[in-house]
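Hey,

Quick one before I head out. I ran the complex with magnesium ion overnight. Inputs first:
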Amino acid sequence: MGIIIKSEREIAIMRQAGKVVATVLGILSEKIKPGMKTRELDAIAAREVIRLGARPSFKGYQGFPASLCVSVNDEVVHGIPGERVLDEGDIVSLDFGAIYDGFQGDAAVTVGVGEISPQAKKLMKTTEGALQAGINAARPGARLGDVSSAIQNYTESRGYSIVREYTGHGIGRKMHEEPQIPNFGLPGTGPLLKKGMTIALEPMVNVGGWETRVGSNHWTVSTADGSLSAHFENTIAITDAEPQVLTAL
Ligand code: MG
């Protein structure tokens, strides 16, 4: 299959898909509060995505039972929304994908519930910074390993670890296209980046070690050592100039 280069027209549609994703995540970030059940967040996402003229990508994907991934505290990714009640001080990773006019948008944010600890704030800020470091490195003529190593170096130089078992990915008509984009690697290695490539970058950053484990529901990924984890993701397009964030308002 290889890496699929998108036309300007296709990227414009992906920008619309991305806008839906950013809008839904913005609404969720505003509404989240102590006492809420995680399934209430999923219900809001499922309702809003339809209102915005799109469809949720994750529902039914390889059997995933919800529209939104909700991963709390030591949960890294792929948390299934349910009866869990959110507490003041929790941090919650919200990962959402939408399909609009045949194209995908995929993004994630980690948000605090009420007042959160300075340690949690610093973790979230570092993860967002790691994502930005990756975006900044995504230029035509660079190699994929330049993006991966930028994310890794940003994270590890601040004393955190980067999850290794889950990666970013190409995205377009399918949620997961080539290439896989590890959040660690060596500069100067991997495929050359070209204008028209559309990729989802998504560092998952742990306070403790990078190792993870999958829970008994076969979906929810948590840190192996129980330490806090955060996740930020954007879908971007590589252009001649600045990388363009497609999952933006
Ligand atoms: Mg993704």
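The radius of gyration is 17 Å.

Talk tomorrow,
K.
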